[in-house]
Each structure stands twice: as structure tokens, then as C-alpha cells.
Amino acid sequence: MRIMSIENVKPGMTVAKTVFGASCQNLLNAGTVLSEEYITRLKDLEVSSLYILDDNFGDIDIDDIVCDQTRLEAGNFVKDVMEHMKLGKGFDPGQAKRIINSVIEELLSSKELLVKLVDIRSISDYTYFHSVNVAVLSGIIGIGLGYSHLRMQELMIGSLFHDIGKTMLCDQVSCEPSSIEGEPSGDMKKHPLLGFEILKRNKNLSILSAHVAFQHHERYDGTGYPRKLAGPEIHEYAKIVAITNTYDLLTTD
Ligand SMILES: [Fe+2]
User: Fold this and answer.
1) What's the CA-to-centroid distance between 229 and ligand 1, angstroms?
2) Can you say whether residue 229 is alpha, beta or left, with left for phi > 0 and alpha for psi between -120 and 50 degrees?
3) Of residues 201 and 18, more confidently modeled
4) Of 186, 50, 40, which is closest to residue 122 (Cα–Cα)?
5) Which residues are registered as beta bridge partners of 2?
């Protein structure tokens, strides 16, 4: 199988992995032969890419580092939290820890972390699942660095909510993943500080997770924002998330 952009798939191709909707419902089962109508419907649902059977790739299978169910649960949790924040409500840090713990468990039980970086893209409402990808990728780096469970949790909760400050900037567009190019203009530059303030109010979360939100757009050479921190002034967690956030944005259609 291989992953293809929705713009390039054609009628007659066979879906290799089930396509999910944002509420965990199956949109199209694995094995379905695509028709023009299916493709149009998937585009309407903003599915950006899907896995297609391809003879050239033989029976190469792409395992998930974290199963679809866990990713969907985490993505939907992020979505709920973001929507609650917009309404001025809080969120349950205990649930965030439970979800991150199950992701950590799956990461630690995976034997081939480095060759299985392909993740869930066959999904509508990708916005919230970007945060999950960043958390998973950051967790992989954390494992590589020999992090303890506590450090993994601090890093990955910070990763999951790195853009939570955008909920204070109101509209739906503001919650979309950031562009990787340059410094944003206007209010968008405030989202790291706003995210820091939201997360630090949660006494059950580590202040270091809040600093991930605060520092994830800082750059090692001091060209980032909002404070133009450089080198050792940037916390290691934020350095990791700066990389994984950019990686996921670069590899998203
Ligand atoms: Fe951001």
C-alpha cells in the first residue's frame, strides 16, 4: 500500500486502510473500490489523503506506532478541550494524563519505532490530529533520549496542547496548525503566551508542559518568537516540539 493525496486518487483504486471521520466513524472501509462519488464525498469531508493498494509496493504493510483508536481518542479529546476553552470552560488534566499514558504505553511496546513514522492521515478534521502526531513524534524522541515516564508525560502533554493558546484568538481558522514559514502577523504571535497562561492555571499539570506552549516557536539561533530566546535559554522539551511540529507540517499534504 501507499499513501496518496486525495487530489491524485482515481476511481477504480482500492482503499488499503479504513478512512475514519473525526468522530471515529468509518467513512470508507478497507477494500472498498473508489468511485467518483466516493472521492467527491471524501473531499467534501476534507479527507486530505488515504492509503491505496499498489501492486508496485507488493504486500508491504504499514503498521501504526500508535493504533488508530488511541489516536482518534486523543484527537477528539484535543478537539473537545479546544472547543471548551473557546467557551471559557476548563478541561480535565487527569484525562489528558490517562490518554498520554496509553500513547506512551503503545510507543514503548512498539519494536520498530524508527521505521514506522507513518501516521493517521486518512481522516477528516485533520487540525486536531496534527497535535496528536506532534505528541507521538515528540514521545519517540523522548524514548530515544532515555526519558523517564514523568518526563515523557510532561513533554507529550505540552506537545498535545502546544497550540491551545489559539483558542483565545476566537475563530476556527485560528485553531489550524501554524504555517512553517516565518513569523506570523498580528494576534497569532500571542498564542504561545496565551497557551502558557492556560496550561499553568492547571495546577495538576507540570509547569514544564506550559513552557512547551510558551517556547515552541522559539528557534535555536534566536530568530523565533515571542521572546527570541536562543540556545540554552530554550527548554529541551520546546526544542523537541519545535522540530516535531515543523516535521509534521512539512509532511502533511
Ligand atoms: Fe504554534
Assistant:
1) 15
2) beta
3) 201
4) 50
5) 52
Higher-confidence residue of 43 and 159: namely 159
Distance 217 CA to ligand 1 centre (A): 6
Residue identified by cell 473537545 is 80
Pick from 172, 167, 176, 171: which is nearest to 86 by CA?
A: 167
**From the CA of 143, how far away is ligand 1's center (Å)?**
23
Measure the CA angle with vertex 172, ends 169 and 175; round to 5°: 65
Number of neighbouring beta carbons within 10 Å of residue 39: 19
| CA 173 to centroid of ligand 1, rounded, Å | 13
Query: What are the Cα distances from residue 206, in Å, to 45, 156, 200, 215, 221?
Result: 37, 11, 8, 15, 27
Give the three-state DSSP class for 3: strand
Residue 182 Cα to ligand 1 midpoint, Å, equals 12
Alpha carbon of residue 105 to chain centroid: 18
Domains, the chain = 2-57 (3.90.105.10), 68-250 (1.10.3210.10)
CA of 190 to the centre of ligand 1 (A): 10
pLDDT of residue 114 exceeding 60: no
Look at 62-66, 73-77, 210-214, 220-224 and tell me which has the smallest mean pLDDT: 62-66
Neighbours of ion ligand 1 (CB under 5 A): 163, 178
Q: How many Å lie between the centroid of ligand 1 and the Cα of residue 37?
A: 36
CA 12–ligand 1 middle distance (angstroms): 39
